[in-house]
Amino acid sequence: MHKKLLAALAALALSAGLAGCGSNDDKVGGATAGDHPEWKKLTFTVGEQSDGIKTLISTSGAFDDVSYKIKFAKFDYGPPLVAAAGAGDIDLGMVGSVPPIAGAAKDLGFKVVALQTPNDTSKPLENIIVPKGSPAKTIQDLEGKRIAVPQGSSAHGLLLNALEAGGLGPKDVKIVYLDPKSGAAAFDSGKVDAWSIWNPQGEFAVQKGAKVLVPGVPPVDPGVQYYVAADKSLQDKTRRAALTDLLERIGHAYAWGNGHPDQHAEAISKDSGIPLDQAKATEPAWRFELAYVDQAHVQAGQQLADNFLEAGEITQKVDFTKVVDNLLGPDYDPEK
Questions:
Q1: Is the pTM above the cut of 0.90?
Q2: What percentage of residues in the chain have a pLDDT greater than 70?
Q3: Which residues pair with 92 in a beta bridge?
Q4: How far is it, in rounded angstroms, from Cα 205 to Cα 201?
Q5: Of 331, 226, 192, 212, which is closest to residue 282 (Cα–Cα)?
Q6: What is the Cα–Cα distance from 181 to 184, expressed in whole angstroms?
Q7: Structural domains of the chain ordered from first start
Q8: What is the predicted pLDDT for the residue at 200?
Q9: pLDDT tens digits along 24-50
Q10: pLDDT digits (tens, 9 = 90+) for 152-178
Q11: Which of 46, 63, 74, 217 is most solvent-facing, going by the fewest CB within 10 Å?
């Protein structure tokens, strides 16, 4: 059954390549403050995960003329962010491909409103790593070993698919579900034999001597990110319009960061607290293009949800068409 899961993520990676691309320049856009005086009373809470977007929002110039206010909520990984969106505690946030599936299976009150596709799928955002001195050379060498991973995260999806690609299943290893901070402690202390985790946490471990066993690149990892939004904001006409503007401006901020890698690395360093040299090493994997959730992605998301159900990773069937509520149009261009 995990072969179907691998195929689902491969389809997601393929559709990501078809979602759109563009050149980078200094353009920013969005409605000006004078266009919507009713937005002055609005405040939006954005969930962020140390990818630099908090600082890019201020340094890119993409939000210089907004009338609504923005607050930030920090999350270590995707599942708690999706839960916060479902509860209405945040209005918008970005996660990997797996957390929305797990959240939808719990009937949380959120929708997928846009996606981000990697500019270069050869630059992994997450990897399966092993400690310095580990004899493991392939995923098969982890049979019977303890592997840490945040449950329900994109790194969880990477692990399941890497095992399948290596002819193994979840029962052939000892999966230890740990949040990123606990996973780092377990990895550093030798309590686990491997760790499926994203950057910059993974890059930090690599710079200390860990090695990448399985890179998170297609077909085992599509690298696609989803934006999720709270139902309560989507169902309010005024908040929905302003939230669309906010999302588009985030796209402009990332486009600006793509064209200014040094400033983007500085933003990642500032938001995550990691040294600048480590942020520069991981920055290429954080170059994305904001995009509309097209039919190919809806189908890939449905296949992923169906196969997670079959694999026993979720207990309720998900209709992915009901999870998507696009805020962007099919012709959205982050450069305009």
A1: no
A2: 90
A3: 46, 229
A4: 7
A5: 212
A6: 5
A7: 2-119+222-322 (3.40.190.10), 126-215 (3.40.190.10)
A8: 82
A9: 333 344 555 557 899 999 999 999 987
A10: 899 998 998 899 899 998 999 999 999
A11: 74
Residue type, 144: G
Does the CA dihedral 233-96-23-58 come out positive or negative? positive
What confidence tens digit (pLDDT) does each residue in 74-123 have?
A: 998 899 999 999 999 999 999 988 899 999 999 999 999 999 988 888 99
Distances in Å between the Cα of 90 and the Cα atoms of 74, 265, 300, 324 are 10, 26, 26, 18
The length of the chain is: 336
Give me the amino acid identity at 62: A
What distance in Å separates the CA atoms of residue 169 and residue 312, rounded to the nearest whole number? Answer: 12
Give residue 111's identity as a one-letter amino acid code: K
